[in-house]
Amino acid sequence: MRCHHFESGECRSCTLLDLPRPRQIAEGRDRVEQLLAPFLSPGTAWDGPLVGADSGFRARGKMAVAGTAQEPRLTLPGQAAGVDLCDCPLYPDGVEEVLEGAKALIRRAQVPPYDVARRRGEIKNVLVTASPDGEHVLRLVLRSEQALPRIREHLPRLLEAHPSVVAVSANIHPDHTTAVEGEQEIPLAGAASIAVRTGDVTLFARPQSFLQTHTEVAGKLYRQAAEWVAQWVAERGAGRDAARGETAHEDTPRLWDLYCGLGGFALHAALAAPAARVTGVEVSEQAIEGALEAASAQGIAASFLAADATDWAIEKSAGPEGPPDMVIVNPPRRGLGPRLAGWLEDSGVRDVLYSSCNPTTLASDLAAMPSLRITAGRFVDMFPHTEHAEVIVRLRRIPT
């Protein structure tokens, strides 16, 4: 990928852009595999990395607003305020036009950009979500509701000029912090969600729900998990002893997807294991609404509920059914933490899939779960041209 902003020194967000792509992937994979080497089962070999396009891939754009109401500029958080980056080559086709439309709306509505140093102004950030089908959701992060009447007045012109925009909302973020957005979301126009085809399912993303950055790679990630789930089902069937006299209910495998987000893993797992009872748990109610919408729209037999994943797993496993047969976890960057890692270690669950956006915390969690060891793993290049690494591993409980 070539980027004139990087070559001129205006933007250095893609810190590895001057390295050949194969070297980026090889070095990232080596770092992850060396970090996790102590936790591999004997004889385990890593599979090839999961990679995708190195440009035009970002499903979400997060732009900080600088300049003036008459001449707004959209840049990346932390970059020089004088550089407009609407034409960033990481964005898919159509995003630049939508961002230019947002700048035109700011000019017409005369919404002053927020000045961090002076703590004055109204609009802080412009956020865009893009689907593989070329649809967009536009979100305006504002300090207050003061500018909303002017934005509503001029919004029809933006929607007419950019028919790909299926929804617009205002996010109210009054605090002076580095957080990109606040808690309050005010719908201004369009649908409640955007459909994002990912792997073998369509996810429905609400404005404040988490969506993987690289849709193509996310699809490959979910498909890899589904392949391992299918292998687990086959192994379970082959090893089942009919003499145990299991009832039909007891013979139905149960799979929990903790930190399920929009349901990408759970929905793929349900397709791979249609006889299993798949349950996704996520603290974000918006994400669960999207997961339920996806399951209903596609006729996928997976259930979802909004709850703290750790509290729910500990409480549920203490019930009459006990722990599940398999667990998928996809925690935030902080990892599972001692309570959930401790529960997994003591639960007796034999098979775990762990998708991590922070291999360092994955290593810490694995150290706290010595009974679970990696039997398969893949480096995931979710953020090309950066040192950010993701990884998915299949864990199996070792005999004690």
Describe the structure.
With 400 residues, this protein is α/β, with parallel strands linked by helices. It has 2 domains: 21-53 and 213-397, 3-Layer(aba) Sandwich (Rossmann fold), CATH 3.40.50.150; 60-191, Beta Barrel (OB fold (Dihydrolipoamide Acetyltransferase, E2P)). The protein contains 10 helices and 15 strands. It has helices at 4-7, 21-36, 95-109, 148-161, 215-239, 264-272, 285-298, 309-317, 337-347, 359-367; strands at residues 60-67, 72-75, 123-130, 136-142, 165-172, 184-190, 194-198, 201-205, 254-258, 277-282, 302-306, 326-329, 351-356, 372-380, 390-397. The strands form 3 sheets. It has a 7-stranded mixed sheet, sandwiched between helices. A 6-stranded mixed sheet has the order 2-1-3-4-5-6, with helices on one face. α3 (95-109) packs antiparallel against α4, α5 packs parallel to α6 (264-272) and α8 packs parallel to α9. The protein is globular. 45% of the residues are buried.
Fill in the keyword field for this structure.
2 domains; alpha/beta; seven-stranded mixed sheet; Rossmann fold; 15 strands; 32% helix; OB fold (Dihydrolipoamide Acetyltransferase, E2P); globular; six-stranded mixed sheet; 400 residues
